[in-house]
C-alpha cells in the first residue's frame, strides 16, 4: 500500500518536551485519530496542534523542519486512515484563521468570472453553500463531497467528470521553511486525485487555501444541479455509514467498484470492516472496526482483484 511521504523523526520524550516549550498554543498529546477521521477508526497521533493563523503556521513548520520531525496536516479526515500503531509525529489542524472566504473583487454579477479566495480549513460543503448564496457557478460537482477545501485541492477531489483543479486559479501554501507563496498553473500540476508541484522546493508544503475561478450563474439552476448530484450519490453510495468515500482510485479506463464487485467481494468482512453491499469501492466501518481490520480488508481486496483481473488497485485513501 502507498505510504505517506513524511519526514524521519518521531516524537520521543525529548522532542515532546521541546515541542511543549516551543509551542505557545495548546497541544493534544496522544490524540485518538478515530475521532478525527470519517472512517471512525485509527490509532493515536503523538501530538495534535491546532494552528490559528499563518504566522503561527510558518513558525511551527520552520521549527518542525529544523528538528526533522514527522508531520502531517489533516482537513476533515474524510480521506485518511491512521494505522493502529499510530502516527508518531505531529498532526496539524488548520483553525479559525484558515476558514475565511473572500471574493477578490465586488460580486456585481456583471463580470464573466470572479476570483474567490477560500481558506484550506473551510468545509467543502460550507464553501459550496457560500457560492450558492452568491449565485456563483463552477463548484456544483462538490455537492455531497465531504472534507475541507484544503483536502479537495490537495486531492484534486472530483465527481461527475469535474475536478477541483479545473476551477483553481492559484494555490496558497506555506513551504517547509515557513515561506508563504501563491502558485499558479506554471508550478502546480493537477492529475486524477492528486496535486503536485513542478519544483522540489515546494515538496512538503502545507496548502493554506486557494483562489477559485467561478462564474455568475442562475441560482435556481445551481441549487437544482447540487440537489441532483446529492440524490445520485444517495442512490449509488452508502450514506450514513462511516467510510472514507471511494477507497481505491479508479484504474485507467476501468472502475474500482466494478472490478471489486466482479471479484465477488461485496459484503466481504474483516472484523467490523466491510466492503459495502451498495458500492463495492466503499469500505465501511460497521461500528468498531480497527484500522488494522480496514487495512487487512483493503489488502485482501487488492490481492483478490489482482488474481481475477491482473489489475493492481491503488488506495485513494491516504494511509498514515
Ligand atoms: N460499479 C459496479 N459495482 C459497484 C459500484 C460501481 O459495478 O459496486 C460500476 C458502476 O455500475 C459504474 C462504474 O462502476 O459502471 C462506476 O461507478 P460510479 O458511477 O459509482 O462511480 P465511481 O467511479 O465508483 C467516482 C468517484 C467518486 C464520485 C463518483 C461520481 C473515484 C475513485 N470515485 O466513483 O468519488 O463520487 O465517481 O462522479 O474516482 C471519492 O473519490 O471518494 C468519491 C466518492
Overview of this structure, please?
It is built from 7 helices and 20 strands. It is of the alpha+beta class and 320 residues long. The longest helix is centred in the last third of the chain and has 19 residues, at 291-309. Strands 6, 7, 8, 11, 12 and 15 form a 6-stranded antiparallel sheet that branches. It has a 4-stranded mixed sheet with strand order 1-2-5-3. Strands 16-19-18-17 form a 4-stranded antiparallel sheet. Strand 18 and strand 19 form a beta hairpin. The chain folds into 3 domains: 13-97, Uridine Diphospho-n-acetylenolpyruvylglucosamine Reductase, domain 2, CATH 3.30.43; 98-230, Uridine Diphospho-n-acetylenolpyruvylglucosamine Reductase, domain 3, CATH 3.30.465; 238-319, Alpha-Beta Complex (Uridine Diphospho-n-acetylenolpyruvylglucosamine Reductase, domain 1), CATH 3.90.78.10. The termini are close together. Bound molecules: uridine-diphosphate-2(N-acetylglucosaminyl) butyric acid. Uridine-diphosphate-2(N-acetylglucosaminyl) butyric acid binds next to strand 16 and helix 6.
Assign an overall shape: globular
CATH architecture of the largest domain: 2-Layer Sandwich
Radius of gyration: 20 Å
Distance between the termini: 11 Å
Annotation, overall tally of beta strands: 20
Overall structural class, as computed from helix and strand content, comes to alpha+beta
Sheet bearing the most strands, described? 6 strands, antiparallel
The low-confidence parts are none
* Number of individual domains: 3
Beta content comes to 25-35%
